[in-house]
C-alpha cells in the first residue's frame, strides 16, 4: 500500500533527530499493509548492517531486530541445535508466504505487540531480553515478558529503538513443548503455549501467548500436578486478559489454554522423569 502522507525516507545511520510522525522501517510488512495517516517520515533500518544472529562468548544467542523470519529459520538450526525445533515451530506459526518470511523482521513482530505474534511467543518462552536504545544513546534492557504490556502496546518510549533480543544459553539448552490452536486451518493463532524444562534444576516454565493480551509466564520449581497447573493459570490470567476478537472468544481461548497447559505438563513431566532415570543409570 502506498503511504501518501510520508514525505521522506531517511537512513537510520544518519542519526536524524526523532520527531512526531516518524516510524522505524524494518521489513515494512506491517507499515505498508494499511493506511498510516499519522506518519510523515520513515527511518530505514535496512542498511544498518546488523548481524542477524550472533552467538556470544557466553553461548547466548543475540537476534538483531532486523533479522528476518527466513534468516531465523535457516540460521537458528546451527546456532542453537537443542531449541531448533521450537524456532521452526514459531516461524511456521506465521502461516505467511515466502515473501513475508523474507521481509518481516523479529523486531517488527515484537514492536507490533499483537497477541498472536509468534516471535513474542518464542523469545518470551526462552527468557529473552530486549535491548532498547534511546535517541540520546542510553541503553536499557527489558525482559520480553515485560516488554509487551497489552494488545498492540509495549514499553517503548518515543524515538526508542529495539536493537536486539538476547536468549540465554541455559534457556536454549532446555527441552521444549509447543502447542498452538486456531479456529481455522490456516488462521491466526488463538492460543499458543510453550513449555520449557530447565536443563539444570528441572524448573518447568509455562509461557502463555496469543490467548492473552500480553505474555504470561509461570514457573514451577518442582514438577506440578494437573491441579497445581490449572490453579496457577487461573490465578495468573485475569478474566479481562483473555483476548477477544474474530479469531476466538475469551471462553474458547481460556479452554484451550487450560487444555494445552496440561498437555505440556504431561509431556515435559514424562521427559523429566526419563532424563532423571538416564542420569541415575549413568552414575
UniProtKB/TrEMBL annotation:
It holds the Pfam family FAD_binding_5. Gene3D superfamilies: 3.30.465.10. Residues 1-172 form the FAD-binding PCMH-type domain. GO terms for molecular function: FAD binding; oxidoreductase activity. The lineage of its organism: Bacteria, Bacillati, Actinomycetota, Actinomycetes, Kitasatosporales. This is CO/xanthine dehydrogenase FAD-binding subunit.
Amino acid at each position: 500500500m502506498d503511504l501518501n502522507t510520508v514525505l521522506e525516507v531517511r537512513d537510520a545511520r544518519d542519526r536524524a533527530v526523532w520527531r512526531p510522525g516518524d516510524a522505524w522501517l524494518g521489513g515494512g510488512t506491517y507499515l505498508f499493509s494499511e493506511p498510516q495517516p499519522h506518519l510523515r517520515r520513515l527511518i530505514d533500518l535496512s542498511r544498518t548492517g546488523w548481524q542477524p544472529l550472533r552467538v556470544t562468548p557466553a553461548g547466548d544467542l543475540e537476534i538483531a531486530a532486523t533479522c528476518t523470519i527466513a534468516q531465523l529459520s535457516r540460521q537458528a538450526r546451527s546456532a542453537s541445535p537443542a531449541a531448533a525445533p521450537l524456532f521452526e515451530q514459531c516461524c511456521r506459526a506465521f502461516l505467511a508466504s515466502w515473501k513475508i518470511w523474507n521481509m518481516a523482521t523479529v523486531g517488527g513482530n515484537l514492536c507490533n505487540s499483537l497477541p498472536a505474534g509468534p516471535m513474542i511467543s518464542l523469545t518470551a518462552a526462552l527468557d529473552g531480553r530486549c535491548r532498547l536504545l534511546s535517541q540520546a544513546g542510553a541503553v536499557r534492557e527489558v525482559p520480553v515478558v515485560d516488554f509487551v504490556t497489552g494488545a498492540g502496546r509495549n514499553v517503548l518510549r518515543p524515538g526508542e529503538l529495539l536493537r536486539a533480543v538476547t536468549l540465554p544459553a541455559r534457556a536454549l539448552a532446555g527441552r521444549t513443548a509447543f502447542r498452538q490452536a486456531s479456529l481455522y486451518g490456516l488462521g491466526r493463532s488463538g492460543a499458543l503455549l510453550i513449555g520449557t524444562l530447565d536443563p539444570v534444576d528441572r524448573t518447568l516454565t509455562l509461557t502463555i501467548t496469543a490467548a492473552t493480551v500480553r505474555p504470561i509466564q509461570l514457573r514451577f520449581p518442582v514438577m506440578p500436578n494437573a491441579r497445581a497447573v490449572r490453579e496457577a493459570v487461573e490465578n495468573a490470567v485475569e478474566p479481562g486478559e483473555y483476548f477477544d476478537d474474530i479469531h476466538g472468544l475469551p471462553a474458547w481461548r481460556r479452554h484451550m489454554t487450560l487444555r494445552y497447559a496440561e498437555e505440556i505438563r504431561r509431556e515435559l513431566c514424562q521427559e523429566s522423569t526419563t532424563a532423571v532415570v538416564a542420569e541415575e543409570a549413568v552414575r
